[in-house]
Amino acid sequence: MNPPFKPPITVSKQAKKGLELRRKYNRGGTRVGLTRAHQLSKQENISLSTIKRMYSFFKRHSVFKKYHGKSPPSNAEISWLLWGGNAGFKWVKNILGKR
């Protein structure tokens, strides 16, 4: 059995930012993304299987990073933040030993 992993504060902050943007613009993210954002923002323990799902999300959605940084933020950017943003991607890569 693998131990749970506590998200760092940098990941929590990104998830909180995603939740704020989603409330403001009333778009971005799925039900699963919202669940993840709430877990990350509260720094709840995350299982290894969820860490692997997060990695898969980031790998699939990294192609949409070209839409980040615009105003107003794109749905892709809001979704990315809900999953912990760049800090989340770095965190899960470190846990999984990925580059």
Report what the structure shows:
- The structure is a single chain.
- The protein is mainly α.
- The protein has one domain (9-96).
- 63% of the residues lie in helices and 0% in strands.
- It is built from 5 helices and no strands.
- The chain has helices at residues 9-25, 31-41, 48-61, 75-82, 85-96.
- Helix 1 (9-25) crosses helix 2 (31-41) and helix 1 (9-25) packs antiparallel against helix 4 (75-82).
- The longest helix has 17 residues, at 9-25.
- The radius of gyration is 13 Å and the shape is globular.
- It starts with 8 loop residues before the first helix and ends with a helix.
- The mean pLDDT is 96.
Set out the fold topology.
Elements: H1 9-25, H2 31-41, H3 48-61, H4 75-82, H5 85-96
Helix pairs in contact: 1-2, 1-4, 1-5, 3-5
Instruction: Report the portion of residues in β strands.
Output: under 5%
Structural class per helix/strand content? mainly alpha
Mean pLDDT: 96
What does the largest sheet look like? none
Give the overall form. Answer: globular
| Rg calculated over all Cα atoms | 13 Å
Query: Fraction of residues in helices?
Result: 55-70%
Termini Cα gap: 24 Å
The SSE order reads HHHHH
Oligomerization: single chain
* Count of helix runs: 5
Q: How many E strands?
A: 0
Q: Identify low-pLDDT runs.
A: none
**Total domain count:** 1
List keywords for this structure.
99 residues, mainly alpha, 5 helices, 63% helix, globular
In short:
The chain has one domain (9-96). The chain has five helices and no strands. The chain has helices at 9-25, 31-41, 48-61, 75-82, 85-96.
